[in-house]
Give the backbone structure.
Amino acid sequence: MNLELLKGSRTRILATVILVIVAIFVVRLFYLQVIRHDYYVGVAKQTQESRFIIPASRGEIYAMNGDIPDQIVMNESVYTVFADPFTVDDKTKVVDSLKQIAGGNVRPNFDQLLDLKQTRYQILANKLTRTQADKLKALNLQGIGFQEVSQRVYPEGALAAQVLGFVDTNGAGQYGIEQYENDALNGKNGLLQAVTDVSKVPLTIGKDNTSVPAQNGKNIVLTIDRNVQSQVENILATDMQKLNVKNGSVLVMNPNNGKVLAMANNPSFDPANYGQVADVAGFNNNTISAPYEPGSDVKTYTLATGIDKGVVKASDTYNNTDHIKVDDITVSNATLGHTGNITFQTALLYSLNTGFVTVAERLGDGTNITKSARDVMYDYFHNRFGLGSLTGIELANEQAGTVISPDDPSGQGNAVRYSNMAFGQGLDATLIQVASGFSSIVNGGNYYKPTVINGYVGDDGTFQKVPDPAPLRTNIIQKSTSTQIKEATHDARAVSFGKTDKPGYYIGGKTGTSQVIVNGQYSNTETVGTYLGFGGGSEDSTQYVIMVQVSGKDQILGGAQQALPIFTDISNWMLGYLKIQPKG
Amino acid sequence: MSLSSQTQNNYYTSRRQQNWSRNQNTTRFKSSVKLGPVAHTVLVALMITVLGLIYLTQATRATGYDYQSQKIDSQIADLNNQKSDLQIENARLTALSTVKDSSVAREMTTPASTDYVQQ
């Protein structure tokens, strides 16, 4: 049938209008579906698809319990209860339920917050446990919501707080291992992008679904032994109170591999309540981040240098007049009266500065601390024993300290400075540096980088121990030098303090009392006391190095009076804990 | 019209008549059943409907699995949370401070003397 419409007829006009409308539709559809295709596909995706961040769980931190790792930092889900006051219909029920279930977790005057109808979000309670949250959820309270938050839990309380650090409200690690290993502990969030139903349940329909699983953070196992750490903290706190000391720090390490067994500072803080700390200085781990003039502990370094270079032996003598002139200054002994020809062993015993300035001079031409003597001392102190340089321990905020080179362009690396350095003044070092260098002296001459990481715990719970570290520098002193220093420090301790040690063991050490610089000058009213020592079953078996530091504003503290008793208490306990058999 | 009542015949058409290429064993069977345009339309519509139903069935079934999967995921998450809570409780109960304050620890005494086995 051939339909012919009369020209100008209404039917023809209608047909034309319809044709035009259809054409408009076609053009519009072409525009929407072809030209704007990508835009509308995007809009559709936005409506139909949802993106879910799959949060990675922050890695847990373990400490050793003998040979087994135990969790000391864990993660716990807690809940924040919030309200939309506008939609709360039964205020009395909400208030009563929260008081009954949330108890002390509610905010003060939280009931008044529910009257603020013009606001849509008010936090009513914080840090509810899962049980509390489940009970509240079961009540189906109108206008009440819950937000799950992950927080750090410390089953051992404040144990090793400065080693651990804490995690702030943004989820970032601060101080200690939490900051240093923040990236490893954090892991990587996963992503799920999928078409969802109205309840936001992800559906498998949709061709662009994406699923990237979260990578949980690493579970780090520290070398810190929780039993040693706990005992050290207890002894430190008890002895500090007994000895009237304001600040104390203790470091216990294995000299044969550089592993730190305990690192304690007092005062400390509770990482679960880090916000309540009055002074942020309390977060600092003074064993790594507070360089100081180590004082007489360094005399063991000077003697080791002299013996190793073959210029002195502990049994050699020098003429002690209690004073010695170096360039335009006179160095005096703190303990006077042991004058005449005395051995360097005696100088070590009474910590006579003149003896060690003499060693420095003998490294030169015998009467002067020459440039070559200073070069030797710098090589041993800085390059070999590691004073004045970062050790690389895996903890945040480590400080390097300062050992001024003889080639320093300021000219400060002169004989006067090096005479002071011979007895531990005129240089800044941290406890970890001094203890690590001393470890290499007593272990036969191998310098190990100090470490706090012992391994990792996998997702399946297995402990993957990192291999024992190899020495960073080998044979930095001769084995015979090591033996002589051990004998010298053992004998020095045995004469004065040997009775306080458990009998039959081989314990040695050196006291240190150093002046503190206040307002650019050495203070006469403030000193820092230290004790640096080692212990083991015999002269051939050194199993721990302990370093103690005590300090306090306007306190005159001595190595022998305040630091040594703390060392002795810890050392005697360590002998039993490590099941060391006496051979002496 | 009943299709089953009809006899189906095959008609042979020679290759020459069909212009097929040579040396190919090609036959053509021509059905005697004739379908009109309406029947075609109905059949196509039916096929589309069946395919649509199959798609819907499968999509619904897949979505059903999604809900099951979601439920299982939720159960796994709950169990993991419970496990985590128990681990924390265990850690708290075995913490040194707890052990130190336990009745067993309180009754322990320091040995008067210690002897060592000679190695």
